[in-house]
Design a protein that fits this description.
The chain is of the alpha/beta class. The protein has 9 helices and 13 strands.
């Protein structure tokens, strides 16, 4: 058995540090810190976070035969994470992330690296899902098409809706199919309303809205609680990957049989750690670090 199958979200980011966000128009800007390209998008970061916590992870996605794909394959090989890379003629997913001095990020996501007819073959996806204790589904194409098959297998599902506004129909299939839903409160005027609506309309017993320095909100079995933020162990340099780290640590706790509240504290600790890691790196908190951050205390 695999602990977690991560579906989708494999790709490459190019990181550019900018003097401020939003970035005022100018003909050019000097970038003294350099322009860095590294493997690591949402699925990669969740897989890395889970593996760093000692879980057995398998990652499945469509990846191009290109330099970006080589970086993704190398990352998984170096970290010992099983990867099934199906051919993607359109190329490997990529994005450009502008990172401000306070660690905030603006991501420019290249949607050309997908085709309308893309699918995960049933004979590949089904056995991987049935061999997993849990499946985390990213919102990259073509993961939505895989949701009916995943529900057939009966394996528990989670997803991260990122900065969903509660209305965009693109996110709805994921929001309604998952047993555990993560999202950011960034675009929500009323997080509680969106969280409760998601739970009422779909299958989710747990909905978590992360709120950056304000912590997070946890809706579990109809009860809403606030999860206080954890103090980062070092200066905050970049928020990239914090939500993925939160999700990975939460799922680690869930698979260990912890309460939703304790899972959320794990998530808060991992998210705080991620904010201390520059976007040019792909470090994740380990089990010893997580349990030593006070996340297990009441």
């Amino acid at each position: 058995m695999t602990d977690v199958l991560v579906l989708g979200g494999a790709g490459v980011d190019t990181i550019v540090r900018v003097p401020e966000l939003p970035l005022p128009f100018a003909d050019s800007y000097p970038v003294d810190t350099g322009v860095h390209t590294r493997a690591g998008q949402t699925g990669d970061f969740v897989a890395l976070g889970l593996a760093a916590l000692g879980l057995d992870v398998h990652h499945l996605d469509l990846i191009g035969d290109d330099p970006e794909g080589d970086l993704v394959r190398a990352l998984h090989r170096e970290r010992g994470i099983a990867l099934t890379a199906l051919p993607q003629p359109a190329g490997t997913k990529r994005a450009v992330n502008l990172v401000g001095p306070d660690g905030r990020r603006l991501s420019l996501y290249d949607t050309s690296r997908a085709r309308p007819g893309d699918r995960f073959p049933d004979d590949v996806l089904r056995p991987l899902a049935k061999a997993a204790r849990h499946v985390h589904v990213t919102i990259t194409q073509p993961c939505a098409e895989a949701l009916p098959l995943l529900r057939e297998t009966g394996v528990p599902l989670s997803t991260d809706l990122h900065d969903w506004d509660g209305e965009n129909p693109y996110h709805e299939p994921y929001a309604l199919a998952a047993d555990v839903v993560f999202l950011s409160a960034t675009a929500l005027t009323d997080p509680e309303r969106t969280m409760r609506r998601t739970a009422e309309r779909g299958r989710a017993r747990i909905v978590v809205a992360t709120a950056g320095a304000e912590g997070a909100y946890l809706l579990a079995d109809g009860e809403l609680t606030h999860v206080p933020p954890m103090t980062p162990p070092a200066p905050v340099v970049d928020s990239n990957g914090a939500g993925d780290a939160f999700a990975a640590a939460f799922l680690y706790g869930r698979l260990a049989g912890e309460t939703p509240e304790r899972c959320a504290r794990y998530g808060a600790a991992a998210g705080a750690y991620a904010c201390t890691v520059p976007a040019t790196r792909t470090d994740a908190i380990g089990r010893d670090g997580l349990l030593g951050e006070g996340a297990v205390t009441a």
